[in-house]
Amino acid sequence: MTTASTDTATGATGGTDILAVAREQVLERGEGLSEAQVLEVLRLPAERLTEALALAHEVRMRWCGPDVEVEGIVSLKTGGCPEDCHFCSQSGLFDSPVRAAWLDKDRLVEAAKQTAKTGATEFCIVAAVRGPDEKLMEQIRVGVAAIRAEVDINVACSLGMLTQDQVDRLAAMGVHRYNHNLETARSHFPEVVTTHTWEERWETLQMVRAAGMEVCCGGIVGMGETLEQRAEFAVQLAELEPDEVPMNFLIPNPGTPFAHLEVPQGPDALMTIAAFRLAMPKTVLRFAGGRELTLGDFGAEQGMLGGINAIIVGNYLTNLGRPAEQDLEMLDTLKMPIKALNDTL
Amino acid sequence: MFCSFCGGEAASGDHEHCRARLSAIDPPRYCPECGRRMVVQVDPMGWTARCSRHGETTNAAQR
């Protein structure tokens, strides 16, 4: 039995410590935390961060194993997007320095080859669009076929919102996984995007799953959401049961409506990682964009030892990442093996 | 000369934040010669930036 009172020194509510509860519920039984429980973790005092990360790491090792899934991503179509996602430098509605660019097939295949050389098992092709038109679908068809013919790597796509016909065609092309981020809590989404709805994104994700593709769905931490909304988002993702959750941390990019926001603080980001792992003990939880500014080198290691079990290596879509070699050295130092391709099929 | 991050004149204003971003997570967005916005393609291991007046630069040329 718990009460509403909270011990501010330990974060324990009504005498029941949330990490003790999580140890039994999540670590032992594999049941993710509820929204109220995730919020308790997010509200833990900073002194308990190390403890929360250690438990999240134990959960990851117990339910996912030691392997780390490595992925590379590339922007096939950059900029000029008609949507108004307030964090995104690729919206054509903002005065952003990012200009439109298209990647040709040869450079796309070369990017996949470079990614495969790192040991990555996933290569995600991304386009800044509301949804794909026929021209883009044809480019995807040609590009995916070329990569599958020349490179030993799983191909994923991220092309915005899809119709049922497009979902079926991507599945038929052999697209292994489809990324479509919900980005933030349903209650906060209207503050982030006004040109489409959270529900429209959810519908695409349901079609992707039904077609047999793996579902990749995550979001961005630090877009002005409250801790309550962060907890809400964690359980909404858990309800979706995605195969992978990429965790991004806001990069306040020039020209975007969120340019004025602060870079999320490292301890806050790390507690969020731990909380998301405790909400989703069995999913692939991937380090994505923004970790370089928010966490730095030391924080990246703490995240890998705090629930993360996948990583994007190299550059992102419009921002640069750490050199891939640096992340691979980090995994080697941490004695975390890279997941092999035959383990993903 | 122009700042590759914000496009402002390099000799005027404070570009400390710009330098920090360029050294950490951003490719150049503005041509340092003329300040025009460049077409930039980022790929997993590098980037290419093309100015309509001054041609193409890559990360290989800068490092």
From TrEMBL, chain A:
Q: Does the keyword Iron-sulfur apply?
A: yes
Q: Tell me the SUPFAM superfamilies matching this sequence.
A: Radical SAM enzymes
Q: Name one GO molecular function term.
A: biotin synthase activity
| Sequence positions that bind [2Fe-2S] cluster | C124, C216, R286
Q: Name the UniProt key words of this record, in alphabetical order.
A: 2Fe-2S, 4Fe-4S, Biotin biosynthesis, Iron, Iron-sulfur, Metal-binding, S-adenosyl-L-methionine, Transferase
Cofactor binding annotation: Binds 1 [2Fe-2S] cluster. The cluster is coordinated with 3 cysteines and 1 arginine. Binds 1 [4Fe-4S] cluster. The cluster is coordinated with 3 cysteines and an exchangeable S-adenosyl-L-methionine.
Q: What class of enzyme is it?
A: transferase
SMART domains in the record, alphabetically?
A: BATS, Elp3
The catalytic activity, as recorded, is:
(4R,5S)-dethiobiotin + (sulfur carrier)-SH + 2 reduced [2Fe-2S]-[ferredoxin] + 2 S-adenosyl-L-methionine = (sulfur carrier)-H + biotin + 2 5'-deoxyadenosine + 2 L-methionine + 2 oxidized [2Fe-2S]-[ferredoxin]
- Record Gene3D superfamilies: Aldolase class I
> For this protein, what is the EC number?
2.8.1.6
User: Which pathway does the protein contribute to?
Assistant: Cofactor biosynthesis; biotin biosynthesis; biotin from 7,8-diaminononanoate: step 2/2
**The Radical SAM core domain covers which part of the protein?**
66-291
Task: Tell me the cofactors it needs.
Answer: [2Fe-2S] cluster; [4Fe-4S] cluster
Task: List positions binding [4Fe-4S] cluster.
Answer: C81, C85, C88
- State the Pfam families in the record: BATS, Radical_SAM
Q: Which NCBIfam families match?
A: bioB
What family is reported?
Belongs to the radical SAM superfamily. Biotin synthase family.
How it assembles, according to the record, is: Homodimer.
Q: Which PANTHER family match?
A: BIOTIN SYNTHASE, BIOTIN SYNTHASE, MITOCHONDRIAL
Tell me, what does this protein do in biology?
Answer: Catalyzes the conversion of dethiobiotin (DTB) to biotin by the insertion of a sulfur atom into dethiobiotin via a radical-based mechanism.
Name of the molecule in the record: Biotin synthase
TrEMBL record, chain B:
Q: Does the keyword Phosphoprotein apply?
A: no
Q: What does this protein do?
A: Required for the activity of the biotin synthase BioB.
Required co-factor(s) are: iron-sulfur cluster
Q: What is this protein called?
A: Biotin synthase auxiliary protein
- List, alphabetically, the Pfam families matched: BsaP
- Name the family: Belongs to the BsaP family.
> Does the keyword section mention ATP-binding?
no
Domain named Biotin synthase auxiliary protein C-terminal is located at 38-60
| Xref: InterPro entries | BsaP_C
Question: Which domain of life does this protein belong to?
Answer: Bacteria
Natural source organism: Actinomycetospora aurantiaca
Keywords attached to this Swiss-Prot or TrEMBL record, sorted alphabetically, are: Biotin biosynthesis, Iron, Metal-binding
